[in-house]
Design goal:
Structural class: alpha/beta
Shape: globular
Order of helices and strands: EHEHEHHEHEHH
Number of domains: 1
Distance between the termini: 49 Å
Number of strands: 5
Number of helices: 7
CATH superfamily: HUPs
Strand order of the largest sheet: 3-2-1-4-5
CATH architecture: 3-Layer(aba) Sandwich
Helix content: 25-40%
Largest sheet: 5 strands, parallel
CATH class: Alpha Beta
Strand content: 5-15%
CATH topology: Rossmann fold
Radius of gyration: 17 Å
Length: about 230
């Protein structure tokens, strides 16, 4: 048996964005990889799915699963899933929960990941959530993941030992870029924009946070942008 085959397995929640890809690179240092992607009716669903497959290929994911939970689009309440709600201009100093928040999305995704992890016998669930330098989503907080760990412990078989790993939770976007560069992450394969599918808009919160992270890291973001402001 090879050394890699002896590693435990981890399910990695891989949206195809910068954070989840760096998270996958981190997970791959200690675990064999099972990549999970969720289509939830987001505006850039097809582009994110392309990135997911490109990145899963790059990291030689042993398993991959794409799940549709378009009920989140039917529920609405977010500019990412409801096209009647405009994607706002970025406000990186805002303290309110932004309209891009998809209500309770991470709980939906973690529930699916837990089911798959239990079937696969995975030892860990990796999610690239960022609390401190992100958009202020309530389901990206440390206490949320601690509470969900209790749900996993309570609601799975006694022999299931699967732990949520959030290695980027207290990173800034600058630190995520720097970590990605250190690990050789293929940033050109990732996608972060909330509304563009061929060229990133450069004008949504996600683009702004990403561009600011690269700028503060003194690095060039390889994605094409329709508008590339200085952040």
């Amino acid at each position: 048996m090879t050394e890699a085959a002896q590693l435990p397995l981890a399910v990695v929640l891989l949206s195809g964005g910068m954070d989840s890809t760096v998270c996958m690179a981190i997970a791959g240092k200690e675990y064999r990889l099972a990549a999970l992607h969720v289509n939830y009716g987001q505006r850039t669903q097809e582009r994110e799915l392309q990135s997911f497959h490109d990145i899963a290929d790059y990291y030689n994911a042993e398993h991959r699963l794409v799940v549709d939970i378009s009920h989140l689009a039917a529920i609405g309440g977010s500019c990412l899933t409801d096209r009647a709600i405009d994607v706002p201009q970025p406000d990186l100093n805002a303290n309110d929960i932004p309209i891009s928040y998809v209500p309770f999305r991470n709980a939906n995704i973690l529930a699916i990941a837990t089911s798959w992890a239990e079937v696969l016998g995975a030892a860990a669930l990796f999610i690239g959530a960022v609390q401190d330098d992100s958009s202020g989503y309530p389901d990206c907080r440390e206490e949320f993941f601690a509470a969900f760990q209790q749900v996993i412990n309570t609601g799975t078989k006694p022999e299931t030992q699967c732990h949520i790993r959030t290695p980027l939770l207290h990173f800034t976007k600058q630190q995520i870029v720097e970590k990605g560069i250190e690990l050789g992450v293929p940033f050109e394969k990732t996608w972060s924009c909330y509304q563009g599918e061929t060229i990133a808009c450069g004008e949504c919160d996600s683009c702004a946070l990403r561009l600011r992270g690269f700028a503060r890291a003194g690095a060039h973001d390889p994605l094409p942008y329709n508008h590339r402001p200085d952040y």
